[in-house]
From TrEMBL, chains A, B:
It comes from Gigaspora rosea. GO terms for biological process: mRNA transport; protein import into nucleus. This is Nuclear transport factor 2. Has a role in nuclear-cytoplasmic transport of proteins and mRNAs. SUPFAM superfamilies: NTF2-like.
Length: 122, 122
């Protein structure tokens, strides 16, 4: 895959992911499969249903991710993505976060096989 | 691969990686292959030689990584790892960072296929 395409897919995926996360987290279900894994602040979940159950249960109403960086590399016909940025929950102060994804091609699109999320504070 | 083994490999890899990074960055050559990729603060490098050339050229004498979190998941017979922490360069104040790795099994060990490093500041 050429580098420009890798970067374009990673950017479009990331923008869609966080926009959907803010609008309606349950809609992220379409991005995960049975074999997908999420590690969220150290807690592990496997399968689209358990992953969405966790994301939907997060105790906030409003969340906005401000993306600072999106880096991506090709592998296994898929894409390895690492995002850094800040997220703001309700009226709290923004917190730094890092999130890494392994995207796998499926038809004309991609699904998330691996997803690790961490707040990054001192 | 059972979850305990994934976690053990990721922890041992991460500890070895940063210990070697502090002691002698050029020794990290053994962890990369021709197909390995590094994205370091947005700059892309491919192949063990170019990756080590970049790491060796970083303009500091002393560097210490304080690891905060190591999260890992299995995939493709390999391991997907995301590390967060703080690094201190020479006598500067510590800076937050995030680094993600895709490890691939080779014989009784692993090499790094994908490596993305970012400082994570507001």
């Amino acid at each position: 895959m050429d580098p420009a395409q890798v970067s374009t897919v990673a950017t479009e995926f990331t923008q869609f992911y966080y926009k959907t996360f803010s609008a309606d987290r349950s809609q992220l279900h379409s991005l995960y499969r049975d074999q997908s894994m999420l590690t969220f602040e150290g807690q592990q979940f496997q399968g689209a249903s358990k992953i969405i159950e966790k994301l939907a249960s997060l105790p906030f109403q409003k969340v906005l991710h401000q993306i600072s960086t999106i880096d991506a590399q090709p592998n296994f016909n898929g894409i390895f993505v690492c995002v850094t940025g800040a997220l703001q929950v309700d009226e709290d102060a923004p917190q730094r976060f890092a999130q890494a994804f392994q995207l796998i091609p499926e038809g004309t699109s991609y699904y998330v096989l691996n997803d690790i999320f961490r707040l990054n504070y001192g």
